[in-house]
Amino acid sequence: MIRLIASDLDGTLLDDKKRLPADLFDVLDELSKRGIIFVAASGRTYSAAEHLFPEKYRSNMAFICDNGACTYINGKPDRIFPLGRKLYNELLDKCGTIGGFEFVVCTSEGVFFDNRDSDFAKDVALFYKQNMPIDDLRNVKGEIYKLAVMDRLGSVEHGKPIIDGIFGKSLNVQASGKEWMDVMAGGISKGQALRSLQERFGITPHETMAFGDYYNDADMLRAAEHSFCMENGSDDVKRLCRYIAPDNNSGGVTKCIREFVFGESEKLRNI
């Protein structure tokens, strides 16, 4: 029996226009009736994720934010796994020496970036609310959850191998897009956060369903016995999963929930 369902947002639950499936709230209502916990798991900060869900639903959900650096339950902060200042400053120094990287820093006090380029600022505003330009990233306020790093030479081919080679396991670097990667403290991931929620609620991997599409979802998908990669997802991630879900533009997440959890068929839903 499924007791917890975790879904990535961008590229998974959201379509390419950043819209939720039309039937999502009907599905969430039914999940609530059945006592099944729904978890929105994202590289986004909480402020950039929670606005997608009316308060009625947030109060009955859990959120994994900043790729696992913090979790929220019923709209309230639960656990935080910050990146230490010393390691953060060392990362800025090393990446500054290499060059070519752009940074967005997600903290408990908001989202900071140091590039005033209009195109980059538009990219930041698209995914991060409460974003603030700052002259020196060493002066960001609050606890640091993660860095979102843009590398125009490619996150998988260029940026991630470089940072991994310098810092090893002291940092967890996850490719979140072709040009983007998220950098958290070592051991922090969506999977680690999902396992923490499973432990808190007494839920096993066998009772867990998870949906994702990209490398930063891989550890979360490993934590769920019922793992789904979206049809539009990475081929490498597909090989990790038990099932392939329809693509994000066709509401693949809710289609699979209806079929595998509610026992509905596509034919019956179309009557």
Describe the fold and architecture:
- The protein has helices at 24-33, 46-49, 55-58, 85-98, 118-127, 155-167, 190-201, 218-222, 235-238, 252-260, 266-269; strands spanning 4-8, 37-41, 61-65, 70-73, 76-80, 101-107, 110-113, 131-133, 144-151, 171-175, 180-185, 208-212, 226-230, 243-245.
- 33% of the residues lie in helices and 26% in strands.
- The strands form two sheets. Strands 5-4-3-2-1-12-13-14 form an eight-stranded mixed sheet, with helices on both faces.
- It is globular.
- The chain folds into two domains: 4-80 and 189-269, HAD superfamily/HAD-like (Rossmann fold), CATH 3.40.50; 85-185, Hypothetical Protein, Haloacid Dehalogenase-like Hydrolase, Chain: A, domain 2, CATH 3.30.1240.10.
- It contains eleven helices and 14 strands.
- The model is unreliable at 267-271 (pLDDT under 50).
- With 271 residues, the chain is of the alpha/beta class.
Sum this structure up briefly.
The chain has 271 residues and is α/β, with parallel strands linked by helices.
How many β-strands, per DSSP?
A: 14
CATH class of the largest domain: Alpha Beta
The N- and C-terminal alpha carbons lie at a distance of: 27 Å
- The computed structural class is alpha/beta
Average pLDDT number = 91
Topology at a glance:
Elements: E1 4-8, H1 24-33, E2 37-41, H2 46-49, H3 55-58, E3 61-65, E4 70-73, E5 76-80, H4 85-98, E6 101-107, E7 110-113, H5 118-127, E8 131-133, E9 144-151, H6 155-167, E10 171-175, E11 180-185, H7 190-201, E12 208-212, H8 218-222, E13 226-230, H9 235-238, E14 243-245, H10 252-260, H11 266-269
